[in-house]
Amino acid sequence: MQFxxxxxxxxxxxxxxxxxxxxxxxxxxxxxxxxxRLGTPVPTEELIRELWGNxxxxxxxxxxxxxxxxxxxxxIEAEPSRANTPRLVVRGPGYVLQARPEExxxxxxxxxxxxxxxxxxxxxxxxxxxxxxxxxxWRGPALDGGSHGPLCAAAAARLEEERLTALEDLxxxxxxxxxxxxxxxxxxxxxxxxxxxxxFRDQLALALQRCGRxxxxxxxxxxxxxxxxxxxxxxxxxVRVLREPGSLRATEPVPAEPGAAGSGTAVAxxxxxxxxxxxGDLVDGPGTQGHxxxxxxxxxxxxxxxxxxxxxxxxxxxxxxEERVPARRRDSA
Length: 333
Description:
By secondary structure, the chain is mainly α. Among the domains are: 2-102, Winged helix-like DNA-binding domain superfamily/Winged helix DNA-binding domain (Arc Repressor Mutant, subunit A), CATH 1.10.10.10; 182-256 and 278-328, no CATH class. The protein is built from ten helices and eight strands. The chain has helices at residues 25-36, 44-52, 60-78, 105-119, 124-135, 150-176, 180-193, 198-210, 214-225, 290-332, and strands spanning 2-4, 10-13, 18-19, 42-43, 88-91, 94-97, 234-236, 239-241. The strands form three sheets. The protein has a three-stranded antiparallel β-sheet. Strands 4-6-5 form a three-stranded antiparallel β-sheet. A hairpin with a 5-residue loop joins β1 (2-4) and β2 (10-13). α5 (124-135) packs antiparallel against α6. The longest helix is centred in the C-terminal third of the chain and has 43 residues, at 290-332.
């Protein structure tokens, strides 16, 4: 059995080689919250907050219990041998989902990235293969379509940061093995999407320099120095490096290993999720407005992400205040 958080929360049945179909968005949100604390009890109050926020129904406890019961039954149907030892059980004041760490895709991702980091300096080619395999585990934004509560929001932010760091390491490995010409376009797109990440910009400048494009490399470095006050696009080739905040999703292209197509080595790949920009949509060729459209999409995604983060923080502070006020009243009494 595989449990997934690198994308929409989900369950994959290794035996049947099929995903377990979850019956409702609330069930997906519940699964995501339990997977964030895999093997650790999650209190009922936290789960209610993850599923309903400040709009919990009058009998939220009963509604939560019904969702838990349905999810437990689906897990048993996928693993009949565990009917007497279900994975999802009551423990203390909450619920716990039991699984081995290696059954969670985020653990697999971290293990492969850790191995790649150890190899990066000594064997960048092997490190690149591991990083491509790790990034291939992603099926979309972490915990996409699950809970927007503080528990899952914080976990999704941590995972996204780890994904971007892995992309930086992959670009580093590609530069170390002399793939600077192939990685330039990828880095241009990454700089467009993540202008605040200096490492992508430094890597782009280095790749351009190694390609003999000294003037463009200097322009990228000047852009980094004046990023705060200058929002004029820097053009490198047919791609404009825009200083606009935002984020690429799992369709960000991964530098290819030379000869990989005929090497017989299987490398995990991902299809673009519905509604995500394809690689070609990120290129601003002559006479097109692809980059302007992408810039606007990126801006909308950033504002949406900020709104969710602020909402989660507001919910957390509200819950904290609600816990403290009764305590003070008891003390004063």
